[in-house]
Amino acid sequence: MDEPSATEPERDREDAGESVIATRGLTKRYRGGQLAVDGLDLTVPAGSVFGFLGPNGSGKTTTIRMLMGLIEPTSGAARVLGRPMPRSSRAVLPHVGALIEGPALYGFLCGRDNLLRYDAADPTADPRTRRARVATALDRVGLTAAAGKKAKAYSLGMKQRLGLAAALLQPRRLLVLDEPTNGLDPQGMREIRSLVRELASDGTTVFLSSHLLDEIEQVCTHAAVMAQGRLITQGSVADLAAGVRGRLVVTTPDTGDAARVLKEQGAADVVVTDDRVTAEPPDRDLAEVNAALVTAGVRVRGFGVERASLEDAFVALTGEGFDVAG
Ligand SMILES: Nc1ncnc2c1ncn2[C@@H]1O[C@H](COP(=O)(O)OP(=O)(O)OP(=O)(O)O)[C@@H](O)[C@H]1O
């Protein structure tokens, strides 16, 4: 039976800039007893590029599978595009493009034929406009020139782009990408990231998981950080990093003296690398710290506080390094 269409109030709530994804107490315990996701309250604003960050095994894929209605939560609730999942899967999923655990492709077919097949499997897709739709999607991901090549001859990056093209055959309000750059070389990563930015600039909300902090900083407007199935923090990337003090950085040829003076001035965690001395800034006027360096004869070439990174925020929140080992 068909799902009833979205009621107007629900649509209005989402269109008025409320969340595209919202979960409350979302929890998944697998049959073996593993608590993979534990009481997750996630809010993804409309129009954001939302990074879902966490080390391997922190529960990202399990969350995405619940959001897409692929598995049932043990408890709690998830709403996608303002509607409950998995109950409203049939109404919601046509508006969502997803790339989860690598695209399913036929290696013996060329890129174009893979997309034609994919489009033909969509009962809502008009067969008369199929070729044009496929050509547009190939163009969008930069695969027009390689469209006639067998998919098994594609690089991993090209396969990911073909998967994205499949997700883009229809206009989407939300794109969900699970580790879209996993296994790619730096060039492939750059291509996928710039594609994500481009898609987001059209107003599509993008939800992407990653275990790479710098990737999230480069492409995302918002982020949530997971560890061991629990949400540690979420918010705009700028706010997450702003909540943490940056490091004091002194550039000088006299690193030994500079390190000593900084310690005397109350700076903690003093680290020397090449011609840079970095430290946690002391609780005093930094002009005094600079003056003390100069008085001690340290030739200061640069002095300032570097903006905190998401990694600093993660370490400050968890007291641990961001361990990406699986
Ligand atoms: N089908 C399953 N049955 C039992 N346990 C599972 C199942 N799938 C995942 N898990 C466990 O749940 C936890 C979270 O896994 P999940 O795959 O969601 O994490 P992840 O953050 O996506 O990590 P990765 O990036 O490695 O996929 C892990 O401890 C994992 O071993």
Automatic annotation (TrEMBL):
<comment type="similarity">
    <text>Belongs to the ABC transporter superfamily.</text>
</comment>
<protein>
    <submittedName>
        <fullName>ABC transporter ATP-binding protein</fullName>
    </submittedName>
</protein>
<dbReference type="InterPro" id="IPR027417">
    <property type="entry name" value="P-loop_NTPase"/>
</dbReference>
<keyword id="KW-0067">ATP-binding</keyword>
<dbReference type="Pfam" id="PF00005">
    <property type="entry name" value="ABC_tran"/>
</dbReference>
<dbReference type="InterPro" id="IPR017871">
    <property type="entry name" value="ABC_transporter-like_CS"/>
</dbReference>
<keyword id="KW-0813">Transport</keyword>
<dbReference type="GO" id="GO:0005524">
    <property type="term" value="F:ATP binding"/>
</dbReference>
<feature type="domain" description="ABC transporter">
    <location>
        <begin position="21"/>
        <end position="253"/>
    </location>
</feature>
<keyword id="KW-0547">Nucleotide-binding</keyword>
<dbReference type="InterPro" id="IPR003593">
    <property type="entry name" value="AAA+_ATPase"/>
</dbReference>
<dbReference type="InterPro" id="IPR003439">
    <property type="entry name" value="ABC_transporter-like_ATP-bd"/>
</dbReference>
